[in-house]
Model the fold of this input.
Amino acid sequence: MNRPDAAPREIDKSPGSIRTVAWLHSDQSILSCCTDMGGTRLWDVRSGKIVQTLETKAPVTSAEVSQDGRYIITADGSTVKFWDANYFGLVKSYTMPCNVESASLEPKVWVHVFDFFTGEEINVHSMAPNCSH
Done:
């Protein structure tokens, strides 16, 4: 994106339709999720290949890297998972009382807020203007 005059860099064909993409490890890795299958795939930019899959039971509706780079946060079905962004192990997993479309450690807008350490709901609010609870 910094060089619009350069030819695009291609990676192997994705196993499904891409829903989300996020950069990781100083842009050396790419996280991707597909609309029709579970798991978050980790692509190595240098080889263009999938090197690991973070397994989920349902298709992932959101995946992001925390601002401090420590966690990968995924939402699939009613589950929110926190993965170690360097070693890709599962750190925490919570089953929520509803389906989750998006999860974040740095939210701009929240309807339901849950405690990271306990998984308990601690607040219901919205930070967006003109939104009701």
